[in-house]
Amino acid sequence: MDTRALGQQGLRVSKLGLGCMGMSDFYGPASEDEAIATIRHAIDRGVDFIDTADVYGPFTNEQLVGRALRGRRERVVLATKFGNLRGADGKWLGIDGRPEYVRQACDASLQRLGVDHIDLYYQHRVDRKVPIEETVGAMADLVRAGKVRYLGLSEASAPTIRRAHAAHPISALQTEYSLWTRDPEAEVLRTLRELGIGFVAYSPLGRGFLTGRFRGDADFSDSDFRKHHPRFQGDNFAANRALVDRVRAVADDKKVTVGQLALAWVLSRGDDVVPIPGTTARNHLDENIAAADIRLTADDLARLDAAAPVGAASGDRYPEGGMRSLNG
After folding, report:
1. pLDDT digits (tens, 9 = 90+) for 171-226
2. φ, ψ dihedrals at 178, nearest 5°
3. For residue 123, which of 111, 137, 109, 139 has the smallest C-alpha distance?
4. Whole-model pTM above 0.70?
5. I need a labelling partner for 311 at 20 to 30 A (CA). Which of 67, 119, 239, 284 fits?
6. Catalytic residue among 56, 101, 122, 150, which?
7. String of b and e for 47-83 (b: at least 16 CB within 10 Å)?
8. What values do phi and psi take at 163, rounded to 5?
9. 12, 19, 158, 275 from 49: Cα distances, Å
10. H or E element in which residue 147 lies
11. Mean pLDDT of the chain
């Protein structure tokens, strides 16, 4: 698979990554054996950018990824995150960007992953109580100690990105971006390109909605957090399903799946953009990988802009509590 640069510090990754969150949390039950097989299959197919976080599980996703990478560590760019706090029971406990916590969280992640360094270490959410320079300063100490190679932020505002990058070079920002979440286009992408920072797009398939597989509430298990997600409820669900149907019309003409078209759109946004779709099964992984070979014409892009213009999605992209942690 072709690679793309993230930032100007030397980090290169496959143009499509693999998000591992759903293998342990949030989207209902998943087979651990199939998850591990999917990660290994991704590596064999040339997907070398593997994304996890301490909070997924909580804590168990890093352990799963670590097991999957045994004997393959040198073939991957491993990314994980810190800063969101959860108890062992899954309860959300806030955000912590204090320097002492940065060091503690990194050591704990290294232990769970079973590795001696993390390739890309993100602050998962900005702690508004701690100056970003203090948090990034502690992250820079980890680089100097050899525990981390490159630094990233997630869901940070443009002013915060500038301050962080001045404290230590930031290689990547990870934020939600897809046909139904185009918020970064307003200011963040412009800032990243001015500073030479790469962009990692999470949920490029709209948490699975843009695959067209979901038609109603019955499609989700009781433990699937999407049941409580504004875009998956009531009138929002119906309006967003209509959005997907408009995108499907373009996909049908291209003779690709609607999910593949959605991924191809994200990939078309620039060589500094790397989507990390999550999946728990090898067949869906192969479908996603095929999107990397889809070329979109100017007419295709115009039709997609008409089908899913900025602001077209109905409902907030997180419940109220999650929305408060964005754009920090």
Report:
1. 999 999 999 999 999 999 999 999 999 999 999 999 999 999 888 777 888 788 89
2. -170, 180
3. 139
4. yes
5. 284
6. 56
7. bbbbbbbbbbbbbebbbbbbebbeeeeeebbbbbbbb
8. -65, -40
9. 9, 9, 25, 10
10. none
11. 96
